[in-house]
Amino acid sequence: MTAYPVGIDLGTTHSAVAWIDAAGRTAMIPNADGNILTPSVVLFDDAGIVVGREALKAVAASSGRVARWVKRDMGSPSYSQPIGGHYMPPEAIQACILSQLRADVERALGKSYHAVITVPAFFDEPRRRATAEAAAMAGLPILDIVNEPTAAVLAFGEQLGYLTSPGLAAGPLKLLVYDLGGGTFDVTVAELRPGQVRALATDGDSMLGGYDWDRRLVDLAAEAFQKQFGADPRQDTTSLHQLHIEAEQAKLALSARAKAVIRVVHTGRVLEVHVARQQFEERTADLLYRTSVTTRQVLSAAGLTFKDIQRVLLVGGSTRMPMVRKMLADLAGKEPHGEVNPDEAVARGAALYASHLLAKSQPPAQPTGRLPPTAAVNQRPSPQLQVTNVSAHSLGIEGYNVKQDRRGNTILIPRNSALPVSVSRKFITRKIGQKSIVVQVLEGESSRPEECTRVGRMVIRNLPPGLAAGTPVKVTYEYGSNGRLSVKADVSGVDRSMKLEFERTGERTAQQIAAWRQVLASEGSFSRLEPMIRSDQEAQRAKAGISNEEVVALLDAPS
Ligand code: ADP
Ligand code: MG
Question: Given the CA of residue 209, which atom of ligand 1 is nearest to it?
């Protein structure tokens, strides 16, 4: 039996799922409510876990039990708000959303499928690790993780016939993908050729999205209320949640109309605040400006100008704001394109990527003469499909800089390198008789380790006694096309395999993940999760403590 390729866009605000249908084209899988978009909102009710529309409805009434915008906190130890009084790991909350999407997939396709999940291109290694763990906690069969803009380009490529018809005489296209969602912003320059998608440069902001535009309207309305009544609705959680919902509604209205009204209800008093589009645009001009700065930076990182860009692709619900389209049209000197639905492009592209991975991993099916050919086998896009991503952040190693007498970051893989990439570099030990070596992997652009993310480390222990200072150590970083890293180190003259496990910061064991999976799949009230949350916190804290006892010396980068 053939496994269906499935693509999952696990968004900050909405999630969506696509597959490859019987005609070999991408198609969306609706949720149980019949909608294409599932709000990425989870309610931890006494009756159980509720995901999507119903959870969103409960935001104002049960704010201490509802989690949303969790994707913004991926990579952190816990979700920013307590749920039922507990700080939950973001992975576990994302796993609830993924479990719901899994149910939707299985209702449509049965159990035989393999999925690709998307992440923003700028997601660093800890956030990718967290996403993979969330999928494992949800029991989803995952082929890989792919970058959202790459997926969007694939969907666009499908639309224009770049993927399925190798004979099509289509020239190379350079594209700029501008993705402004609810909580994240991502911009990527890519090149599309028949059967080929190549990212050239990427950047983004994990803390910028429609949410921030909403917040400006919340502030505007709250200030008006305060002026009138002397009380601030933002001080009360329920009033604030209700106001946020009103503010978002007004924002949506302002995309279609010149004026909107925000109704503020607080301490039994009501105020209707009128907002004009122009006023809204003024209050958020700095946010829009931030996206334009990033857009220009990405272009120059790719060594291009807008003259070289044939198409501007809009992805994400917030690109429906007229201010976004206008800014891009001014910047690019051409209107952005709307060929692919901005809500669906990422999930569709992920399904195409899943299909490409399945085609690579399975030999082409032999016709049996009995069964009708299944879509999943025969209608895949060209197996020659080539997808090249770039790294969004530089990867380096924490070393000791002798000249400056301080720790520094030596970059091995610079940002915007084409993936996969493998880089080796020689370092030397620093002290005589050094007993251990720490390969501390850093992600970030700064030369100061404390300004970078400590992604993980590999510790080589029990070196032979009396090892000379200056013993060469070859460190190799292998960065996969999915943005996942593996690390190797060889110590010269030491006859031992040093392909030690790379310990990711905060990575959970298979047992921890299985325990989460079990407890999340069980029925019952929130209290059943409490022991799991506690034991997870303890395990994570214990891991954070492995640090310094073995760190007798650092590697010394030769100048
Ligand atoms: P994500 O990828 O973060 O899940 P989406 O692409 O689903 O996000 O976009 C959600 C955001 O788009 C929300 O902030 C929502 O308010 C905003 N949005 C959706 N439609 C419109 C519209 N017509 N005008 C302005 N903003 C919109
Ligand atoms: Mg999105």
Answer: 14
